[in-house]
Structure formats: C-alpha cells, structure tokens
Write a structure and sequence with these properties.
By secondary structure, the chain is α+β, with helices and mostly antiparallel strands. The protein is built from three helices and six strands. The radius of gyration is 17 Å and the shape is globular.
C-alpha cells in the first residue's frame, strides 16, 4: 500500500487546448493543469516504488476543498463536520483525473490499471488530497 498527501487546493483537469501545426492539430494541457500535474508528480516521487506497479489497483482519493471566506460560522461548522459537502465545481471526476494522470509512470505504469476508484470531496481549513493506492491481486 502507498499512502501520501498532496498539500494545497486541487486543480481540476482542464479541457485540452489545440494548436494548428501545418496540416495537423496538436492537443496540449492548459498551463494550470500541467503545472499541478508536475507538482503532484514531484510529491509522488518521494513515495514511488523502485519500478512502477504493473498489477491491478484500488485507489482511494479524498479531496479536501478550501472553505469559502464568506461562509457564516454556523455553516462553517457544518462544513467542517461533513454535514455540508462541496457540490460546486470543479467536478470530482475532473479533480481525480488530474491527480491520477500525474501518477502515470511514477507510482504505476498506467492509470488504466485502476480497477476500483473511490473519490470523495469534503471541506477543510487545510485543503489537500489524500491518496491511498492498494495493489489488487
């Protein structure tokens, strides 16, 4: 099992951008997505096995979003206790995609090896993403 935390607010995977190159088109990640993937990859390298895992995987991903500053004290307490959960954008699948893509070639060979994914969003005063990767035999 590999378990680690990525401090800071998560960045959702942005829509690919396109640029015309001669007769073809080249797609690339937006700068914010690319920078976040690089940040996640740097942290993941500290927890990486000697060789990327090649077996099937289960991933548990818990994302903690920053509580908005304009939130009332009562609502803030409800957010911290988990009564109120983040239902605003970015979507959880876009947040997960950016993180899982950045672990390709570092923790595991390819994110297609993930056969089970549990992703949840909560509010917190310390935004972060907690990742747990378990090999499934």
């Amino acid at each position: 099992m590999i378990k680690f935390t990525i401090p800071g607010d998560c960045v959702a995977q942005g829509r690919p951008r396109a640029v015309r190159m001669g007769k073809g088109i080249r797609l690339y990640d937006p700068k914010t997505s690319r920078d976040y993937k690089t940040y996640v990859a740097r942290i993941a390298q500290e927890y990486a096995p000697k060789e990327p895992i090649e077996t099937t995987l289960f991933v548990n991903l818990v994302i903690y979003r920053q509580i908005p500053k304009s939130t009332s004290k009562k609502k803030r307490e409800q957010m911290l206790s988990g009564e109120i959960r983040p239902t605003v954008k970015p979507d959880i699948d876009n947040l997960s995609k950016g993180i899982l893509d950045s672990l390709n070639g570092i923790i595991y060979k390819d994110d297609s090896q993930i056969v089970e994914l549990n992703a949840t969003k909560y509010y917190s005063d310390s935004p972060r993403a907690e990742i747990e990767i378990i090999e499934k035999w």
